[in-house]
Design brief:
Layout lengths: L1 E6 L2 E4 L4 E9 L6 E7 L6 E6 L6 E3 L7 E6 L4 E6 L8 E8 L9 E4 L3 E6 L1
Parallel strand pairs: 2-11
Antiparallel strand pairs: 1-3, 3-8, 4-5, 4-9, 5-6, 7-8, 9-10, 9-11
C-alpha cells in the first residue's frame, strides 16, 4: 500500500503563486506515474498534471499549461506542483495520486491523498 499526503494549500490572491507538495510512503519502490487532480465545489474531479517516474514525461490540462509545473524527487518520494498566475477558477481541493495510467486522467491511478484546499481570491 502507498500513502500520499499533500501539503501547501492555502489562500492566495489572483496572479499569485503557490507550491503544493505530496509525500509518498509505504510501497514506494514501484515506478509510479504521479498525478495531480482537483475538484471544485459542485464539479467532478479533474486531471491537472502528471509526471512519469523518470520525470522525463509530463502532461498538463489545457487550463493550466504554461502556469503550473509538476516535478518529482524520487529520492525523497515527493512530487510537487508549482502553481503560478493563479486564477479564481483554480480554486479547488487538490489531490495527488499514484498509479500506472495508460493515458492522462484518472483511470489507472490506484492511490490518492486526502487533498489540500487551494483558494484563489479575486
Amino acid at each position: 500500500q502507498v500513502q500520499l499526503v499533500e501539503a501547501g494549500g492555502g489562500l492566495v490572491q489572483a496572479g499569485g503563486s503557490l507550491r503544493l507538495s505530496c509525500v509518498a510512503s509505504g510501497r514506494t519502490f514501484s515506478r509510479y506515474v504521479m498525478g495531480w487532480f482537483r475538484q471544485a465545489p459542485g464539479k467532478e474531479r479533474e486531471f491537472v498534471a502528471s509526471i512519469s517516474w523518470s520525470g522525463g514525461s509530463t502532461n498538463y490540462a489545457d487550463s493550466v499549461k504554461g502556469r503550473f509545473t509538476i516535478s518529482r524527487d524520487n529520492a525523497k518520494n515527493t512530487v510537487a506542483l508549482q502553481m503560478t498566475s493563479l486564477k479564481p477558477e483554480d480554486t479547488a481541493v487538490y489531490y495527488c495520486a499514484a498509479g500506472f495510467p495508460v493515458v492522462p486522467g484518472e483511470p489507472g491511478y490506484d492511490y490518492w491523498g486526502q487533498g489540500t484546499q487551494v483558494t484563489v481570491s479575486s
